Amino acid sequence: MKRKDYLTWDEYFMGLAIMSAQRSKDPNSQVGACIVDNSNKIISVGYNGAPIGYDDDKDMTWEREGDFLDTKYAYVCHSELNAILNSRTPVRDCKIFVTLFPCNECAKAIIQSGIKELVYLSDKYDGTPSNIASKKMLDKCGVKYTKYELKGRKINIEL
Question: Which member of 11, 80, 105, 149 is catalytic?
Fold first, then answer.
């Protein structure tokens, strides 16, 4: 008999998004993404961080408040955009798993890249202008989004 406690595809892919988020050096928000095709093949992963070549130790500020140019918001590349840009194959018709519901800028990138489905873990900015814009665009452009419900499964990784 086969095992019955194996991970579902959604658990597996959301687990990869959660693990990818742990690569982020942002002290406040660690966000991860995993893009998969219709055959459940992993196309790409991403996390929020500085763009390639921008030194996240010397050049990066992780501040959340202050003048825009002195905050992380001017420089951070979000997990969804990183996953899309990191892909070596087109992501059209793929599904993206994200740990945080996309902002309006990432929603535009998701739509423009042809991703058709979104599974998210948290929607902590629900009701904010960016979140409302995201949902409006995703709805109008036919991108399905679903909240991932945690199953209470523990996955331990010891290094």
Answer: 80
